[in-house]
Prior knowledge:
Largest sheet: 5 strands, mixed
CATH topology: Immunoglobulin-like
Radius of gyration: 16 Å
Distance between the termini: 17 Å
Structural class: mainly beta
Helix content: 10-25%
Low-confidence stretches: none
Number of domains: 1
CATH architecture: Sandwich
Mean pLDDT: 87
Number of strands: 12
Order of helices and strands: EEEEEEEEEEEEH
CATH class: Mainly Beta
Amino acid sequence: MELHDVDDTVRIGVSIAYNRESVTGESPKTIIQRMSDSLFFDGSAFVVVRNEIRMTEADKNNLPGYYFYDFDQSVDGSEEEYLVRLTNTGTHKFVVDEWHRFVKARATAEKLKQHDQTIIGLTV
């Protein structure tokens, strides 16, 4: 789980490669679902209908195969947890799920991170 401050803009990114070569020209998408009410982000607001937001290819010459979407959590602005699904239906298909939690202060984020690690037995 990724921890962030409330109102942060978070870059959601994925690199696509095949046979150790970066792949350009794909069209990956992200789906962002708020866990408290199961609403989906459409790029500007949370709505009932599931939305796939197209990711941007960063720079196919200098950073080939890297795609991203900048999620501005200030649209929501509250402590919240999101399921972020990255998908690609192009030549190189994939589905990747990520969990993101937004909290009011980074110190709180660190405490939650330590708590989560303790729960799953990974305290270092």
